[in-house]
Design a protein that fits this description.
Length: 205
């Protein structure tokens, strides 16, 4: 998954969106490694846009990341999303949309991805409705070379149907967890980014 950081406002907006989705996919999928945490040390705190809606939650995320080491990040991720038995917080859309894992929302998502010619790779253990997998789909729909698939119409369809309906609830669950720190900051930023995306797609309707 893409591990680059949001570009400055001088760069192409679509490239910056794809980079953000790639970064969020990476961070929600697994614990950040040393290289990724090191990248936060030099990440611009005014990105993605100085004075913009995302600036403060991004600054907060960068600040927390700079104070976090790999071991702490790993322990937090495992405590929140892993461990033995049911995790403290589930990262799967089906859970929030229907109350059950591997339920109808996942079937609908798989059908929609199949129509786009997209499928989970064998190396991916999580189901397609994991938030990281959905963000990676969005990254592809922005940056992919096949314009029949990678276009605004498909981005809006996937986001509005399979991400927007549950993203706020997931982010709130993480942000409000008493033991969350790095991932609380990530959740706040993710929620804000989702709001920006939703507003942009609404303007296309």
């Amino acid at each position: 998954m893409n591990e680059t950081f949001p570009a400055s406002s001088a760069l192409d907006e679509e490239v910056a969106r794809a980079e953000l989705y790639g970064l969020l996919a990476r961070l929600w999928y697994a614990t950040p490694d040393a290289d990724l945490l090191e990248a936060f040390q030099v990440a611009p705190t005014e990105a993605p846009a100085a004075g913009g809606f995302l600036e403060e939650p991004w600054r907060q995320l960068v600040g927390i990341a700079r104070e976090t080491d790999v071991a702490a990040a790993h322990d937090e991720y495992d405590m929140l999303f892993g461990g033995i038995g049911k995790p403290e917080i589930l990262l799967f859309g089906s859970h929030y949309l229907s109350g059950f894992l591997n339920d109808k929302p996942l079937v609908q998502l798989r059908n929609d991805l199949d129509r786009l010619g997209l499928a989970r790779t064998e190396a991916t253990y999580e189901t397609e409705d994991h938030i990281a997998c959905l963000f990676e789909v969005m990254r592809y729909l922005i940056a992919g070379e096949d314009v029949a698939v990678a276009n605004l119409t498909q981005q809006q369809a996937i986001f509005s149907k399979h991400i927007q309906p549950f993203l706020p609830a997931l982010c709130d669950a993480v942000a409000q967890h008493p033991k969350a720190r790095f991932y609380a900051a990530l959740a706040v930023f993710t929620r804000a980014f989702g709001e920006v995306e939703a507003q942009a797609f609404d303007m296309l309707a």
